[in-house]
Amino acid sequence: MSQSLLRAIKLLDCFNDKAELSLLELVEISNMPKTTVFRLVTSLVEAGLLVKVPYSTHDVRYKLGLKLLQLGMRVMNQLEYREIALPYMKEINAKLNESVHLAVIEEDEAVYVEKLDSNKPVRLVIKIGARAPLYAGSAPKVLLAHTKETKRNEYLQQLELKKIAPNTIVDRDKLIQELTKIQKQGYAFSREEFFKDTIGYSCPIFDGAGQLVAALGISMPVIEFSDEKGNEILNELINAAKMISSELGYRN
């Protein structure tokens, strides 16, 4: 891949935490020379990927352009499983008033491609496009557990386990045991592994070829958890995952 393209993508990534950035802020965040940043920003503006926002002669900032939204929507429209899963997610969200999310694997990470928030004052808010390591949290663990064995072993061999939250699994043998357990029981459970003060349940979704497509998950605050609530969540989740997989052609 061309270095200029990689640098341009790096500039777009600078907007993850802030909606608008000045040229100097882009230079500082990207750690690239000012002349390089200026040249790339100019090209990105011409392409519609960035928009120039002049507040004054001396205060010019940049924000992401709508062209990115158009491209993003094209990607979303390609996700057949998302369209099928969304009605079930809405039903669970309305019935339980808990956060519901859908995650897939991309480049050895879990990526959240759809989510519905609860309306509780205390709730987990996941951004669409957010990423997580495959060893932390219920949805990432489901994805890893049902990845093809050779690819999973390659990932585990090169993996550096890092403590992210109070209960992140940082022992490789324990992680392998956890993945085996997930495969056998058909769902994953997590308690403060990636998000603090959060409990999660997730189930795999398969397509007509029996291939893993995504992980459907529900998250809730630790303070509201009980065995009864957990069983209710799990029943709804397992049923929804089975129905979505069935609509995708999965027969098992």
TrEMBL record:
InterPro entries: GAF-like_dom_sf (IPR029016), HTH_MetabolicPath_Reg (IPR050707), Tscrpt_reg_IclR_C (IPR014757), Tscrpt_reg_IclR_N (IPR005471), WH-like_DNA-bd_sf (IPR036388), WH_DNA-bd_sf (IPR036390). The keyword Transcription regulation applies. Residues 67-250 form the IclR-ED domain. Keywords: DNA-binding, Transcription, Transcription regulation. Residues 2-66 form the HTH iclR-type domain. It comes from the Bacteria. Pfam families: HTH_IclR (PF09339), IclR_C (PF01614). This is IclR family transcriptional regulator. It comes from Oceanobacillus luteolus.
